[in-house]
Amino acid sequence: MVFFRLLLLWIGLLGIIIAGCAQKKVTDRQPAWSKESGLATSGNFRAVALSDLDNDGNMDVIGGSSFPGTVAIWYGDGAGGMSAPQYLPFTGDVRSIAVADFDENGLKDIVLCVQRESSGIMVWLNQPERRWVRGVSPIEIHSYEGVKTADVNGDGHMDIIAANITSDIQGGIQVWLGDGKGAWPVESGPTITGVYMDVALADFNHDGFLDLAAAGWGIDGALRVWL
């Protein structure tokens, strides 16, 4: 009887050891990466975003560059391949890119911060058959470094949130509330002063509304949160 009990105990321990080894083998597995595939053979790219822009179920790549200074779009084929780049017809130093459906036609649009030849916040509206038209810009002056999109006020329409680096007295965090038609009738935001490099959104206090966290720079630089 003692022998059988010891045998069962040994079998149980052996099973635990085998299971642990199998688990370790799975968790220790390293990801495999393909060879590098360059979408652009040259250029200084600062911003990148991913989205299914043409609703074909495949992810596309949007890149913003300082040189040549525009936005390039590569449409994915779902097998790792990409189309030739499609360039939006403007020039400027693109600092940040975000995507959202601003005019609610079912296609994701592009918003970007741009400096140098162009200024402010630029919006491009996505049309069927991979066509793009210039949308209404919430602002065409000042220098912005980071841009995000979210439904800040819970009205079902996507809004634009941007970090302003113009100066300590002409900076801040600006919020433009969208009307669902591609226009921005209301401008708000927690502050209009200070240099800010980036902004992020989350519901920190669980009240159902998005809050803001921003990265400040310069004399009064700090990480700040507004509920």
UniProtKB/TrEMBL annotation:
InterPro entries: FG-GAP, Integrin_alpha_N. The keyword Signal applies. Pfam families: FG-GAP_3 (PF13517). Keywords: Signal. This is VCBS repeat-containing protein.
